[in-house]
Amino acid sequence: xxxxxxRVSSASVEIEEKITGEIKQGFCVxxxxxxSDTTEIADKMIHKLVNLRIxxxxxxxxxxxxxxxxxxMLIISQFTLYADCKHGNRPSxxxxxxPEPSKALYEYIIHKCKECVPHVAHGEFxxxxxxxxxxxxxxxxxxxxxxxxx
Length: 150
Known about the structure:
The protein is α/β, with parallel strands linked by helices and 150 residues long. It has helices at residues 39-51, 99-116, 145-148, and strands spanning 2-15, 18-23, 26-32, 55-56, 62-64, 72-77, 120-122, 129-144.
């Protein structure tokens, strides 16, 4: 599992020309799911995500987590985080999970994040989405379960 986390001032997702989710200050999280991911891996990644201390404290140090700043979360499925560009110029997505189990795991992640974060918006698995965000910093972090969970 790969989570690409952007600390944002605001973010929104639009599907078929309609805004279906939006947040103010918080995390815009792009979720890539592989074929070997499980709910146990998701739980570890969610724990790391919601406790990530990347907001500034009163001294300007990145020391506060999402809860401490009353942050919100926008979760977007993004299988392209598993793009393999080793050979040629056309990415391969063979490492991305199959649609049905990945969709179930994506929905599990949304549900678990809602248990920890008061406002969680999300995209629609497999939909053509337009994402707008204002990256605060910029501050972007990639969490990979191969590193986090090993």
